[in-house]
Each structure stands twice: as structure tokens, then as C-alpha cells.
Amino acid sequence: MADRLQKVCDYVQEQLHDKDVHGYFVHGELILDVRPEFLVDVMAFLHDDPKCKFMMLVDIAGVDFPARPQRFDVVYQLLSHTHNMRIRVKLMTDEETPVPSLVALFPAAGWYEREVWDMYGVLFAGNPDLRRILTDYGFDGHPLRKDFPLTGYVELRYNPEKKAVVYEPVNLPQAYRDFDYMSPWEGARYALPGDEKAKVG
Hints:
alpha/beta
């Protein structure tokens, strides 16, 4: 498999030398780094070329690196049923620069792009329905960004007085606690509260 993927890597880089495609291997998997402005052309080649035939878009994922100027990686997982191979295509972008949508080439990209936008805030130019898909429509922020607070900004709960579901600022009724993560199975010499089966001694 490694030899076949190396041939694909060499072939793609040779055929797309003007598109600045850089291929390399991590843990035996082929990754192609592309620039956003060439994404559609590169993906169309991978989809249509007889030696590639990566006709299935398996997933689109985001990764956040807040310290970088281009803080987001957008990662595409492709599968070729014809050649029984998988590859990964990766690009970098920032909070304001849209990434071209792949909906015209891979219809399934519509929902995947919505997920990445919802979780990370990456914009996809040309997506016909770029709206939240995993969070509520009134949700503030993008929860998989590393600078998003663990508690969020607001909480959604049922208010019995108003007899309605309401948004309210997060209120933590309990201060930070120093948790003891030891359990009887890890060698604790005492019974944890509520663990009547623990053997002490």
C-alpha cells in the first residue's frame, strides 16, 4: 500500500506542479497540503483522474492552532473505491478568509462544511446553506475553538416561572473543587463516600 500511495503522491505532484501541492507521509498515510485558492482544482483532479478516482468525500474536519496567524487546518478525507486507497488533503486558513466550498463536486460536503463552520467558525464560500447544524441557532461562538470557555457563555434551560425554555448567563453554583481521582482499584487506603463495597486495608 505504501508503494501505491507513493506513486499517487509523485503522480499528483507532477501533474499539479503549478498548483503548489506538497505531499508527505505521516504514520503511513498520504497527506497533500494545498493552498485554498487551488482547492477546487486539486480536488477535481483527484476526483476525475483515472489514476486517482477519489470519488468519495468521507469527512471534513477542523483543527485549531490559536497561536498561528492562519489558525485553522481544514482536513478532507478522501476514498477511492476504484483503487482501494485513502488520502488526506489539508489546507490552512484564518478566521476571515473563506475556503471554497466543494458542494458542486461532492454534494455531501454541504453538511460537513456546516459542521466545521458551526464548531470552528471557518467560512466556506459557495456553500448554499451555511448555517448551524450541531448547536442551537442562538448559540454564541464556536465551541471547538481552543479559546472558547469550557462553560460556554450562556446556558439553555427550562424556566418553570416563565413556562418556557430560556437562555441565561452561565451561573456556576459551586466554586472550584480539589477532586481526588484515586479509587479503591488504584490503591486508595480509604473508602470513598458512597462506595460501600470498597475494601480498606
